[in-house]
Amino acid sequence: MKKRTRITFNSPLVLWFAIACITVTLLGLLTGGSVTVHFFSTYAASWTNPMTYLRLFTHVLGHSGFSHLMGNLAYILLLGPALEEKYGRRDLLLVILMTAIVTGLVHNLLFPRTILMGASGISFAFILMTSFTEFREGEIPLSFLLVALIYLGQQVWDGIMVQDSISNLSHILGGLVGGGAGYILNLNNR
Q1: What is the DSSP string of 9-57?
Q2: Which CATH class is domain 12-188?
Q3: Which one of 83, 85, 114, 189 counts the least CB within 10 Å of its CB?
Q4: How far apart are CA 9 and CA 88, in angstroms?
Q5: Of 143, 20, 147, nearest to 72 (Cα)?
Q6: Among 25-39, 55-69, 89-103, 129-143, whose mean pLDDT is lowest?
Q7: How far apart are CA 121 and CA 127, in angstroms?
């Protein structure tokens, strides 16, 4: 008898993160962006306001629209399941939270008059973290160096040469968090 093929919920953390991003984006579109600005983006606000601290984490769920969302989810859904399998949910959740807080804090300190939203820092963290999956002690994978050169180099270039609303600094910071996490987690797993 032939066994049936079934769909599995193979990567709970990554899939729930994607579902949360899609839900928040829909809510943002339905409210004309109001929900996104108030709850799912970060910007310099009073440190006495508890929402300032919450938004340092929740800004990674907010997106300006489906084009912005799909660009980020493509990498997250492609790379996230393998990272979740290798490092586990807890460690990958810590990478997501660390990326959110680092990108949020640095953005608020350096660009207090602009709003930051989106999971691009996390997608870049996953890109750099993935290049450490075959890491051995005493070695730096050439794939990591090439990925870092290509992705981070492009962000530095775009940050200097291209005037747009993309936060290249968030991409760079996310990549640094992901690369650092991949290195540390692989050292600890030896």
Answers
A1: ---HHHHHHHHHHHHHHHHHHHTTTHHHHHHS-B----TTSHHHHHHHH
A2: mainly alpha
A3: 189
A4: 15
A5: 20
A6: 129-143
A7: 10
Please state whether the predicted TM-score (pTM) of the whole model is above 0.90.
Answer: no
* pLDDT band for position 31 (cuts 50, 70, 90): very high
**DSSP-based helix, strand, coil % in the chain, nearest 5:** 70, 0, 30
Half-sphere exposure of 68 (CA within 13 A, CB side): 22
C-alpha span between 81 and 135 (Å, rounded): 18
Whether the Cβ atoms of residue 9 and residue 15 lie closer than 8 Å to each other: yes
Paired residues of 42 in beta bridges:
116
Cα separation, 145 vs 26, whole angstroms: 37
Q: How many CB atoms are located within 10 Å of the residue 188 CB?
A: 9
pLDDT reported for residue 102: 96
Tens-digit pLDDT profile for residues 146-157:
877 887 777 777
Sequence ranges of the domains in the chain: 12-188
